[in-house]
Amino acid sequence: MTVVALLTACSSSKGDEQKADDKPAAGGTTSAPAPTPMSTINATQVVAGLTGAGYKCTPDVAYVTCTSGATSVGILTGSHPRPPVVSLHAAGPVDTSSAEIAKVLPQVLELAHVNQGGDIVTWFGQQKASTAQMTAGDWLVEYSAEVDTDEPGTNLTLTDKLCKVNCQAE
User: Fold this and answer.
1) Which pLDDT tens digit goes with each residue over 50-61?
2) Would you tell me which of 6, 50, 123, 135 could form a disulfide with 55, CB atoms 3.0–4.6 Å apart?
3) What is the pLDDT of residue 32?
4) Are 50 and 69 in contact (CB under 8 A)?
5) Phi and psi dihedrals of 106, rounded to 5?
6) Is 66:136 a contact under the CB 8 Å cutoff?
7) Contact (Cβ atoms closer than 8 angstroms) between residue 122 and residue 106
8) pLDDT for position 25
9) Does pLDDT of 19 surpass 90?
10) Phi, psi of 45 (to 5 degrees)
11) What is the dihedral of CA 72, 120, 156, 89, to 10 degrees?
């Protein structure tokens, strides 16, 4: 027996309808509006979001570590307007640990209100070297793969470039 499901979405919002006077862009499609930047939230709010999403969070000196499956997310706490450091780690062979981080990365970036999340997710998926870094808006993003060590795994760390004081754990 074959079951076919048809899903449809509709919206009553007038903003979703194309107006008759909207002109398609040069490529034959209408251009999408730029995404609205997410507001800045502090470390406590990020941890609350992760907890609400089902992560198990535990404070540890300067960080709160939140886990979901094989990935742990470290949030540097403090009185900063946004977390100075957001780091993700998964243990195991690089292919496996990178795949584990990739599963949760979009959600973590959204919950942390990182506006360049899509760029970071795309960049992370392209990493094949043992280390790499990029800048995404006001974030320095660093990737490292630990291969020939006692604890192999993958790390992805976002550091707030705007942070001036107490920006790293002591």
Assistant:
1) 999 999 999 988
2) 50
3) 54
4) no
5) -60, -40
6) no
7) no
8) 45
9) no
10) -70, -35
11) 20
Burial tier of 59 (Cβ tally within 10 Å: 0-12, 13-18, 19+): exposed
When the pLDDT of each residue in the chain is averaged and rounded to a whole number, the result is 82
Helices 117-125 & 94-111 angle (0-180, nearest 10): 180
pTM of the model: 0.77
Are 17 and 30 in contact by the 8 Å Cβ rule? The answer is no
Question: Rounded to whole angstroms, how far apart are CA atoms 119 and 54?
Answer: 25
pLDDT value of position 21: 41
Average pLDDT over residues 92-99: 95
Question: Rounded to whole angstroms, what are the CA distances from 14 to 9, 10, 22, 86, 113?
Answer: 15, 11, 14, 38, 27
Contact between 64 and 58 (Cβ < 8 Å)? yes
Q: Which residues of 87-118 are buried (b: 16+ CB within 10 A; e: fewer)?
A: bbbbeeebeebbbbbbebbebbbebbbbbbbe
- Which of 87, 73, 99, 94 is CA-nearest to residue 153? 94
- Strands (E) across 35-118 are located at 56-60, 63-68, 71-76, 85-91
Structure tokens at 26: 């040069």
